[in-house]
Amino acid sequence: MDIFALVAEDKIRTAIKNGEFDHLPGMGQPLQLEDLSSVPEDLRMAYKVLKNAGFIDDDKSLDKEIRTLQDLLRCCTDPEEKQRLERKLNEKRLRFQRLAEDKNWEKSKAFRRYEAKINDKFGPSDR
Description:
By secondary structure, this protein is mainly alpha-helical. The protein has a domain of 72 residues. Helices cover 67% and strands 0% of the residues. The chain is built from 4 helices and no strands. Helix 3 packs antiparallel against helix 4. The radius of gyration is 24 Å and the shape is flat. The mean pLDDT is 82.
């Protein structure tokens, strides 16, 4: 074990003894793990960094934003504000559509690779 690991371990033990970890947010709650199965393994860390920095829209959050904008549009009475909200809603819908197309493309690409491996192993099906 190197010196940095020893120092870190010592600091962690001291913090535990001093109760510094006793009242952390989420303590005792289950971890909320993200499903990153659609992201290639070698890109997951970069994906998490970009997503945490706000450069990647998650389809669930994008869908929520779309629903919120639709609700705002229903209640809006100001024509200028309504026009601004409609533009924003159209942008979000386009982004959501692109995201859905990208996911479907990746799935079909993965399926083709998988199908090729099956055909290599067992031969093409007679269908």
